[in-house]
Amino acid sequence: MKSLATLSTGEIFEGAKSYKKLESKLSRLQYLNRHKTKFSRNWEKAQLRIARLHTKIADIRKDTLHKLTTYLAKNHSQIVIEDLNVSGMMANQKLAKAVADMSFYEFRRQLEYKCDLYGSQLIIVDRWFPSSKTCSRCGQVKQSLSLSERVFECEHCNFSCDRDLNAALNLAMAVSSTVTACGLDNADVARLKQE
Questions:
Q1: Which of 3, 136, 139, 170 can bridge 131 by disulfide, Cβ–Cβ 3.0-4.6 Å?
Q2: What span, in angstroms and rounded, lies between the C-alpha atoms of 113 and 111?
Q3: pLDDT tens string 114-160
Q4: How many CA atoms lie within 13 A of 72 on its CB side?
């Protein structure tokens, strides 16, 4: 997980990665607590230190998410995100810790209520839309794209850019192709032209 969010403008928002930063400290506290007598005074002190560190990790994550979602909802009239299969990503042992540290469900939940609050529109694109595999310049779809490939390279038009930026551009184009500037979809525009 390189970043929490990438905008179609090229703006990148890093995730807090609070668990990753404080993981060694947490494991050290838990390691030192392993031989203490349960419910003794020292055990209770250690439990309190561990709980405080867990709270600190959660607070850093919440703060980052609140700042980002507020910025997006206040400054953008239309926000497009993918419907990610988070439970499927959590099943992958190599990705699970990083996905949990980013807190994608909480990101979406906050965006939903803040878009209503600030009057912006949230569009959730279907999870099967090939945003990462499609070239944002020519529209050619790659058959396969491994997770380790961080740069998207199109063999058809020799276009090359960051994988996340390419996906963001595709999501922006997917919405703009169905909705015009005045908010009507293409079918409504065609009907109005006939009248």
A1: 170
A2: 6
A3: 999 999 999 999 888 888 899 988 888 988 888 788 899 988 898 98
A4: 31
